[in-house]
Amino acid sequence: MRAVHITRLDGPESVEIVDVDEPAARDDAVVVDVHAAGVAFPDALLTRGLYQYKPDLPFVPGSEIAGVVRSAPEGSGFAAGDRVAALTGLSDGMAEVAVVSPDTVFKLPDAVSLTAGAGLLFNDLTVHFALRERGRLTEGETVLVHGAAGGIGTSALRMAPVLGASKVIAVVSSEAKADIARAAGATDVVLVTDETGRGWKDAVKELTGGKGVDVVVDPVGGDRFTDSIRSLAPSGRVLVLGFTGGEIPTVKVNRLLLNNVDVVGVGWGAWWMTRPGYLATQWAELEPLLASGKLTAPEPSVFPIEKAAEAIASLENRTAAGKVVLQLVR
Question: What phi and psi values does residue 303 have, to the nearest 5 degrees?
């Protein structure tokens, strides 16, 4: 089978497309013929050995797939021919065949294409956990999304209104990214710095009539973190999802006292891995929303497998538009 291979830790440019043996089938696992694989920021970190998970070289990156079931254990709820999305862990996804646990496989609604399905689980389940479990989003609240044109950002823009947000404000770095954010569902879009030199914090203050926002979704970190705290309404929450900006910020905890606000860590993987059945609970809520169209499927940027290096690099250099997906079918 064809697979994306990392043989040295020199960044995305070290990516190779090779033929390797298919993974061995197991009696307790679902075998999936992979049509598409999601690309995420950890994949870029893995190519440089900068992620906390450090697989032995060589390895196949990728944590999420979509495809068609080839075989499945009796009683698993899956059968040959089923269209599914699946989580593979933090590696092995960018290959033409995957062997995965039934607990991390999910039937796709007919309304969701395999390409969209490959970009669905990692971001949508993370954002669902962030807003529902950690952010305690309630009806009528206002959500601010940093990195709003990226995979996590566009997922938050799609999902927040479905979970009750009345206003969803996107923060982006360019007009091109503003268009992506509006298409994903932002009610308002502000630039990190606009043409007059006004920063996003002041723009958000104006949009909220000085009140501030209830929830900040922040996969970026870096120098905008303190202003995120300052932008909160009383009892507001900043949700920390990652640090694509490079710098891990620190918190002066006296700021939390001033307005009774929270900084909340969002570690979706650590959560579901210690709570059997949690993923199924999430999918039980999201699947009908996707099937009905109430929650729209992502519209990913699609790269052929031959351009895997370019796809992974787009996460590292922050040029990615929305979710990035590799197409593996010939």
Answer: -115, 140
Residue carrying structure tokens 């030199």: 197
Closest CA to 144 of 156, 129, 152, 155: 156
What pLDDT is recorded for position 189?
Answer: 98
Residue boundaries of the structural domains of the chain: 2-119+298-327, 123-269
For residue 281, give the H/E element and its range: helix 278-292
Query: In this predicted model, what pLDDT tens digit does every residue of 229-286 receive, in sequence order?
Result: 999 999 999 999 988 776 788 888 888 998 899 999 999 999 999 999 999 999 999 9
89: number of Cβ within 10 Å: 16
- Residue of 45, 38, 25 lying closest to 246 (CA atoms): 45
Separation of alpha carbons 11 and 9, rounded Å: 6
Q: How far apart are CA 144 and CA 157, in angstroms?
A: 9
Gap between the Cα atoms of 229 and 259, Å rounded: 9
Superfamily of domain 123-269: NAD(P)-binding Rossmann-like Domain (3.40.50.720)
Assign 197 to helix, strand or coil: coil
What is the DSSP annotation of 77-113?
S--TT-EEEEE--SSS-SBSEEEE-GGGEEEPPTTS-
